C-alpha cells in the first residue's frame, strides 16, 4: 500500500478584489428607530382596508362642511344669535363635532396595526431585532410611531381641510380665520389625542400577545364596554335627577374623554346645534382643571408603554 504525500494545491485566490470601504452616508444612532417606523408605516399603507376606513372617516368632515356652508349662508343671522355673535364658538364646535364623529373609524384603523409586536412575538423576531445594535427604546419608539403616524395623518388631514374650507367660505371680521388665528395649532393638538391613546394601548396589548387579532379584540372590547357601561350609569343617574353624577358617569369612557379634551383645546364650552338655533345641548363642565381632564387618558397611555417595556426584553443564550 502506498500513500500520496504530495501537499495539496494552494487555494485559488479570490477572483473579485474590488471590495472597498463603505463611503456612503452614515445615519446617526439616534435614527435607528426610524427603520422600524418606516417599515411599519409601509405595511399599514399597503392594506386596502386602511384606505377604505380612511375614506369613510373623512365623511363627517365633508358632511358638516357642506351643511354649514349651505344652511349657514341662508341662516347666518340665526347662527350668530345662537352663539351670541361669537363665531369662534361656531367654527370650533363644527370642527370638534367632526373629530368626535371620526373617533370610531380611527379605532378601526388602529386595530389594523394591533399585530405590531404580536407578529414579532409569534415569529420570534424579537431575538433578531434586539440582537442588532438596537435598544429596547429604539424598538418601542419605532413600533409606537408606526401606529401613531398613520392615525395622526388620518385625523389631522381632514381637520385642516375642513378648517381651510370654512376659512374660505366665511371671510371678513367674523370669518373663520379671523375668529381664531391659532386654530391650526389647536387642531395639531386635538388630532394627536386619539392617535396617541390608540397607539399606546395597542402597543401594550400587542406586546403581551402572539396574535394581533387578540390584542385588537381586547382593546375594542374595552372601548365599547366602557362606552356602554358609562352611558347606562349616566342614564340611571339622569333618571334620579342627579345631573352632576350623570355628567361624570356618562363621560367615563374613552371617546367621551377624548372629546372633552378636544372641547377644552378648541374652546367649546357646550354643544348647540347652529343649524336649528338651539335644541340639543351637551353639558361640559367648565371648571374641571387640565390634570382632571388629562389624568384618565394619561393613565391608559402610561399603562400601555409600561406593559410593552416590561414584555419586550433582550435575551441571552447560555450554554449549560
Protein traits:
320 residues, two-stranded antiparallel sheet, elongated, mainly alpha
Describe this structure in words.
With 320 residues, the chain is mainly α. It has helices spanning 32-45, 48-74, 76-82, 87-111, 118-122, 126-131, 136-169, 176-179, 183-207, 212-239, 243-250, 254-266, 290-311; strands at 270-273, 278-283. Strands 1-2 form a two-stranded antiparallel sheet. Strand 1 and strand 2 form a beta hairpin. Helix 9 packs across helix 10. The longest helix is centred in the middle third of the chain and has 34 residues, at 136-169. It is elongated. The model is unreliable at 274-283 (pLDDT under 50).
Strand order of the largest sheet: 1-2
Total number of strands: 2
Q: Count of DSSP helices?
A: 13
| Percent helix range | 55-70%
Low-confidence stretches: 274-283
The helix-strand sequence is HHHHHHHHHHHHEEH
Mean pLDDT: 79
Amino acid at each position: 500500500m502506498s500513500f500520496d504525500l504530495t501537499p495539496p494545491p494552494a487555494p485559488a485566490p479570490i477572483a473579485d478584489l474590488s471590495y472597498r470601504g463603505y463611503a456612503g452616508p452614515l445615519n446617526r444612532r439616534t435614527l435607528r428607530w426610524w427603520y422600524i417606523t418606516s417599515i411599519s408605516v409601509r405595511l399599514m399603507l399597503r392594506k386596502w382596508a386602511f384606505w377604505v376606513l380612511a375614506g369613510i372617516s373623512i365623511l363627517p368632515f365633508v358632511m358638516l362642511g357642506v351643511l354649514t356652508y349651505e344652511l349657514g349662508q341662508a341662516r347666518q343671522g340665526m347662527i350668530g344669535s345662537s352663539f351670541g355673535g361669537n363665531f369662534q364658538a361656531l367654527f370650533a364646535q363644527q370642527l370638534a363635532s367632526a373629530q368626535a364623529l371620526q373617533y370610531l373609524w380611527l379605532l378601526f384603523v388602529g386595530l389594523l396595526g394591533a399585530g405590531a409586536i404580536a407578529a414579532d412575538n409569534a415569529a420570534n423576531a424579537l431575538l433578531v431585532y434586539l440582537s442588532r445594535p438596537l435598544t429596547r427604546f429604539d424598538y418601542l419608539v419605532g413600533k409606537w410611531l408606526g401606529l401613531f403616524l398613520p392615525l395622526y395623518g388620518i385625523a389631522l388631514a381632514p381637520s385642516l381641510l375642513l378648517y381651510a374650507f370654512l376659512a374660505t367660505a366665511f371671510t371678513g371680521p367674523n370669518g373663520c380665520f379671523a375668529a381664531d388665528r391659532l386654530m391650526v395649532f389647536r387642531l395639531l393638538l386635538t388630532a394627536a389625542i386619539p392617535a396617541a391613546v390608540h397607539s399606546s394601548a395597542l402597543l401594550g396589548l400587542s406586546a403581551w400577545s402572539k396574535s394581533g387579532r387578540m390584542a385588537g379584540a381586547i382593546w375594542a372590547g374595552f372601548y365599547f364596554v366602557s362606552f356602554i357601561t358609562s352611558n347606562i350609569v349616566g342614564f340611571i343617574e339622569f333618571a334620579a335627577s342627579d345631573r352632576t353624577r350623570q355628567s361624570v358617569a356618562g363621560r367615563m369612557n374613552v371617546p367621551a374623554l377624548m372629546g372633552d379634551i378636544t372641547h377644552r383645546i378648541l374652546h367649546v364650552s357646550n354643544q348647540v346645534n347652529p343649524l336649528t338655533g338651539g335644541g340639543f345641548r351637551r353639558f361640559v363642565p367648565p371648571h374641571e382643571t387640565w390634570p382632571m381632564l388629562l389624568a384618565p387618558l394619561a393613565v391608559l397611555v402610561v399603562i400601555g408603554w409600561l406593559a410593552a417595556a416590561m414584555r419586550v426584553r433582550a435575551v441571552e443564550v447560555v450554554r449549560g
